[in-house]
Design brief:
CATH topology of the largest domain in chain A: Glycosyltransferase
CATH architecture of chain B: Orthogonal Bundle
Number of helices of chain B: 9
Structural class of chain B: mainly alpha
Order of helices and strands of chain A: HHHHHHHHHHHHHHHHH
Shape of chain A: elongated
Oligomer: heterodimer
CATH class of the largest domain in chain A: Mainly Alpha
CATH superfamily of chain B: RNA polymerase sigma factor, region 2, helix turn helix motif
Largest interface: A-B, 69 and 69 residues
Strand content of chain B: under 5%
Distance between the termini of chain A: 51 Å
Helix content of chain A: 55-70%
CATH class of chain B: Mainly Alpha
């Protein structure tokens, strides 16, 4: 829009009348004029509304910790100790994550462990506790948001309650994905209550309510968390508790191999299929081996969804109704997992991984927690240094976005396109999962 | 904490900015705490509404206040304290953007006249909220309106901080309000 010329010569003074940036005598003069000038009167009324809207977006002052941090920064001295905040915090966090990833690489048979990294290693202190603190704050916040019934209610945090079983499963996955034993420490009660809720919500057929558009997501996420819990004798969850939801999930699979959102009547899509595959691929832990075959069938269906560039489509190849980034990352994760299982490293998935990196860096790099969780898994599963470096960078970005003060401290703002379903519960659990690299840890 | 439970900085809230800065320059940390308490909200709002996410806004507010502490000897009461503070704030933001631009091999670009914050865009599905509307203003208009509305600066103070004539502040405020009027009240996001 080009700046328009004022209709009345007094119009440029009107915002000052609202904002108080004008001498009282002049203000009185303009006000008298506005009473007689229809154009200025209309503008003044609208500017008042605009001013009110702007004021309504004013943030509260930070809490007492902010003052303490500034005073601590002054006491520590500058600039030698306290460099540019974004850069220094980013480097330290990057060093932390890098160290974690490289240590985890020791367990990766196909990794380039021991090789000199081909990317610059961030300098600065290696502080293992920093990542733990970020995830720990997230888990603390999630615990504080739990409903007394044991579930997490998305509607209380900007989402929709029809996704409650799935969101509860998602939160529990964040607890199971952390380095700590979820049944020891301060969150043991939280996890136990959450699992109790999921067990109580499991129908006789193994399905969760409601049977609507949230069905496959609810089913997959709840089944994943019950599967993860079944490894712990103290969880009160046994293999059959996880197996029944998994079997119900598999019953929703279409003949083509894909999964739709709600039932056999909906057209399969790669989003719902991704979560179904993640759940079913772990079904062997429950003693139910047919689930893995169902997962393979779904992956085979998804392979037909890739376009020439290696991007995963939604319902068919080349179909991107919700953008390409999250599905491209999901596709890369599946490819990396498949190729890694075959001992091929990134192999043919490398070109897709480059797309993932481009999506994370380009102008379309808007917050997308699904994309981030899948991308971290894909990039780190590839076992190639430059992809791992991109994962480090992404995790650093995610960590920097955590809310640090106020009642939402420890959470992430529900700012992505999927947050309408799970709200702040979803965004926080997904951020924790990404930071934990949970989907790769073999715990879920 | 003082004996009555209040932070020492709170006891200084009745002193003028200039007096608090003078005391700070003499080594009175509680006076500087008073400055922090007085301006922390304005700074946080300024950075957040200029497009920083919550974490970056807090980092920038801290950076500004730490720089202010370092410059406490340079402040002279002949100039407006808010203008002095927000000049530092602008420089802190510019430095961070430059460093981020250099350090990130990918993605982030230097701000241009009307760059939208993708985080803001994505958070506004209906494209009608204040954050989104502010993101549609040019950098100059946004900086001026955010400084006045959220920083609480008068027109002359904003002019001093932005190093422009007061008349330019007035015209920028007018054009900003006109565009915000279109965006917020008339749904003119296609304008």
């Amino acid at each position: 829009m080009r700046n328009r010329e004022p209709v009345c010569m007094h119009a440029p003074d009107l915002p000052a009348l609202i904002c108080g940036g004008i001498e009282p005598a002049r203000a009185a003069e303009i006000r008298r004029h506005a009473e007689a000038c229809p154009s200025c009167a209309a503008s003044l009324a609208d500017y008042g509304k605009v001013f009110g809207l702007l004021q309504s977006a004013r943030l509260d002052a930070p809490d007492g910790r902010f003052l303490q941090e500034v005073m601590a920064g002054i006491a520590e001295g500058r600039p030698s100790e306290r460099r540019s905040l974004a850069v220094s915090l980013g480097a330290a966090a990057a060093a932390c994550f890098l160290a974690l990833i490289l240590s985890a690489a020791a367990f990766d048979s196909g990794s380039s462990q021991g090789a000199k990294p081909a990317f610059p290693v961030p300098s600065g202190p290696t502080d293992y506790s920093r990542e733990d603190e970020t995830v720990g704050r997230a888990l603390d916040w999630l615990a504080s948001a739990q409903d007394p019934s044991g579930c997490w209610k998305p509607a209380m945090h900007g989402g929709r309650d029809q996704y409650a079983p799935g969101v509860t499963g998602l939160v529990l996955l964040a607890y199971f994905g952390s380095e700590r034993n979820p049944f020891e420490g301060p969150h043991a009660g939280t996890v136990t209550r959450g699992l109790r809720y999921l067990k109580s919500m499991t129908g006789h057929d193994g399905g969760f309510q409601p049977k609507g558009p949230a069905l496959v997501y609810n089913q997959a996420l709840a089944a994943m968390s019950l599967t993860a819990a079944s490894r712990f004798p103290e969880s009160g969850v046994d293999a059959s508790d996880a197996m029944r939801p998994l079997k119900f999930l598999a019953s929703l699979q279409s003949e083509s191999g894909g999964f739709g959102e709600d039932s056999l009547t909906s057209q399969p899509n790669s989003s719902a299929s991704t979560w179904a595959v993640l759940a079913l691929s772990g079904s062997g832990r429950t003693g139910w081996t047919e689930g893995a075959e169902s997962a393979r069938k779904a992956i085979a269906w998804m392979k037909g969804m890739f376009d020439d560039e290696g991007r995963l489509g939604y319902r068919v190849s080349g179909d991107y109704p919700f953008g390409r980034a999250a599905l491209t990352a999901a596709g890369a994760m599946h490819l990396a997992g498949v190729e890694r299982a075959r001992g091929h490293g990134a192999g043919g998935g490398a070109s897709v991984m480059d797309k993932v990196m481009a999506d994370l860096a380009g102008k379309e790099a808007v917050p997308d927690f699904c994309q981030w969780v899948f991308a971290v898994s894909a990039l780190e599963a590839a076992g190639i240094d430059r992809f791992r470096a991109a994962s480090v960078s992404l995790k650093t970005r995610i960590a920097s976005m955590q809310v640090k003060h106020g009642p939402q401290s420890g959470s992430w703002d529900p700012s992505d396109r999927w947050a309408a379903a799970g709200g702040r519960i979803y965004s926080t659990a997904m951020a924790a999962l990404a930071l934990e690299t949970a989907l790769l840890r073999g715990k879920l | 904490m003082s004996e009555n439970g209040a932070h020492p900085g709170e006891a200084n809230q009745r002193l003028s900015d200039a007096r608090l800065m003078e005391l700070s320059a003499r080594g009175d940390s509680s006076a500087f705490a008073g400055i922090i308490l007085r301006y922390q909200g304005a700074l946080l709002n300024f950075f957040r509404r200029m497009g920083a996410d919550t974490g970056d806004a807090e980092d920038l507010a801290q950076e500004t206040l730490i720089r202010l502490y370092e410059y406490r000897d340079r402040y002279r009461p002949i100039s407006s304290f808010p203008a002095f503070l927000f000049t530092i704030a602008r420089h802190a933001r510019a430095d961070m953007l430059r460093k981020a631009f250099r350090s990130r091999a990918s993605g982030m670009e230097e701000p241009d006249e009307c760059q939208e914050d993708p985080a803001v865009v994505s958070s506004s599905d209906d494209c009608m909220d204040v954050e989104y509307a502010l993101s549609r203003l040019s950098e100059k208009l946004k900086e001026t309106v955010v400084m006045v509305i959220y920083g609480g600066l008068t027109y002359p103070e904003a002019a001093e901080a932005l190093q422009i004539p007061v008349g330019t502040v007035k015209s920028r405020m007018f054009f900003a309000f006109e565009k915000l009027r279109d965006l917020l009240l008339k749904g003119g996001f296609d304008a």
